[in-house]
Amino acid sequence: MVLAKFVEVGRVVKINYGPQEGKLATIVEILNDKRVLIDGPTTGVQRQVIPIRRLTLTKFNLKGATRGARSGVLTKAIKKSDPFAQYAQSIAAKKVAKKALRAKLNDFDRFRVMILRKRRSALLSTQLKSLKKNAGGKAQAQAKGGNKKK
Amino acid sequence: MPAKKRTVRIGNWYKSDDENVHFVRKRKAPRPAKLRKIVPGQVLILLAGRFQGKRVVFLKQLKSGLLLVTGPFKINGVPLKRVNSAYVIPTSTKVDVNGVNAGQVDDEYFKRTQAQRRKNEQGFWAKRGELTAEQQTAEKTRLDGKRKTQKSIDDALIAAVKKTPLLKQYLGARFSIGKTTRPHELVF
């Protein structure tokens, strides 16, 4: 596996520890092998020095971020091409959103999810049975999309 | 108001008649327990008793502080019932109770009658106290009246419950904790 995510100026990172946990920011300057300066003017992260240990690198880069760029410069670059919006489309971000949604479910919601999952599984199993019967066991099970699970 | 006297061990010490009891607390009428943000129509989860885990609809708070709830009976078998709010989890699901009139139900409704007390009084091995004919008819009319109140309240409720899909099945199901559920993280 080739290393693809580098700690570099412009790298979009996610803070994974501390009061700003979960927020995105951009690396603005590298201070030493352990600390960087990050800034997230559009995501509510104050310009700060932070140890790399507290960051998760994403695969996105902010184009136009120069070393030591000030918040205004960064904001302009973000306006041109927004890597944070791209990140929101990524699977990692969607997983986080799903987890947050599931944590918010109330008792009735959880009951509804359970019923829907049972219905979907029932649909899948009937499909599977009919496919097996028709193709004499050789067919590959095609999962038919049932209700969209939360 | 009877003063609370401390029991004294029989010994050499006998209280004199004119001795003053030090401090008598005036017994006040019981204050209804403060309702922690439970609203009529809210679905509650019962935590104790025969119906533990059942989800019921809250109707109103009675003067004694207990909560009046109903299954509705047809949905999950819980009748009009008084429940202590400490043994209840309020969920955020609400049923529309605008058409429900629970006005005639109060603590008196749940009081044991003479006939019921007579039935229970004889003890396990003895033959149950039998009711006279008029007591039996009185019982019958009482129970019929209860069935009617239950039905009148429940019919309005069930009509409201049917409007939300899956709500009827939700009320019919019991709440339970599995191996992986973390109750402190659950949002109700």
From TrEMBL, chain A:
<feature type="domain" description="KOW">
    <location>
        <begin position="6"/>
        <end position="33"/>
    </location>
</feature>
<dbReference type="InterPro" id="IPR039660">
    <property type="entry name" value="Ribosomal_eL14"/>
</dbReference>
<dbReference type="GO" id="GO:0042273">
    <property type="term" value="P:ribosomal large subunit biogenesis"/>
</dbReference>
<dbReference type="GO" id="GO:0006412">
    <property type="term" value="P:translation"/>
</dbReference>
<dbReference type="GO" id="GO:0003735">
    <property type="term" value="F:structural constituent of ribosome"/>
</dbReference>
<keyword id="KW-0687">Ribonucleoprotein</keyword>
<dbReference type="GO" id="GO:0003723">
    <property type="term" value="F:RNA binding"/>
</dbReference>
<keyword id="KW-0689">Ribosomal protein</keyword>
<dbReference type="GO" id="GO:0022625">
    <property type="term" value="C:cytosolic large ribosomal subunit"/>
</dbReference>
<protein>
    <recommendedName>
        <fullName>KOW domain-containing protein</fullName>
    </recommendedName>
</protein>
<dbReference type="InterPro" id="IPR005824">
    <property type="entry name" value="KOW"/>
</dbReference>
<dbReference type="Pfam" id="PF00467">
    <property type="entry name" value="KOW"/>
</dbReference>
<dbReference type="Pfam" id="PF01929">
    <property type="entry name" value="Ribosomal_L14e"/>
</dbReference>
<dbReference type="InterPro" id="IPR002784">
    <property type="entry name" value="Ribosomal_eL14_dom"/>
</dbReference>
From TrEMBL, chain B:
<dbReference type="InterPro" id="IPR041997">
    <property type="entry name" value="Ribosomal_eL6_KOW"/>
</dbReference>
<dbReference type="GO" id="GO:0003735">
    <property type="term" value="F:structural constituent of ribosome"/>
</dbReference>
<protein>
    <recommendedName>
        <fullName>60S ribosomal protein L6</fullName>
    </recommendedName>
</protein>
<dbReference type="GO" id="GO:0022625">
    <property type="term" value="C:cytosolic large ribosomal subunit"/>
</dbReference>
<dbReference type="GO" id="GO:0000027">
    <property type="term" value="P:ribosomal large subunit assembly"/>
</dbReference>
<dbReference type="GO" id="GO:0003723">
    <property type="term" value="F:RNA binding"/>
</dbReference>
<comment type="similarity">
    <text>Belongs to the eukaryotic ribosomal protein eL6 family.</text>
</comment>
<dbReference type="Pfam" id="PF01159">
    <property type="entry name" value="Ribosomal_L6e"/>
</dbReference>
<dbReference type="GO" id="GO:0002181">
    <property type="term" value="P:cytoplasmic translation"/>
</dbReference>
<dbReference type="InterPro" id="IPR000915">
    <property type="entry name" value="60S_ribosomal_eL6"/>
</dbReference>
<keyword id="KW-0687">Ribonucleoprotein</keyword>
<keyword id="KW-0689">Ribosomal protein</keyword>
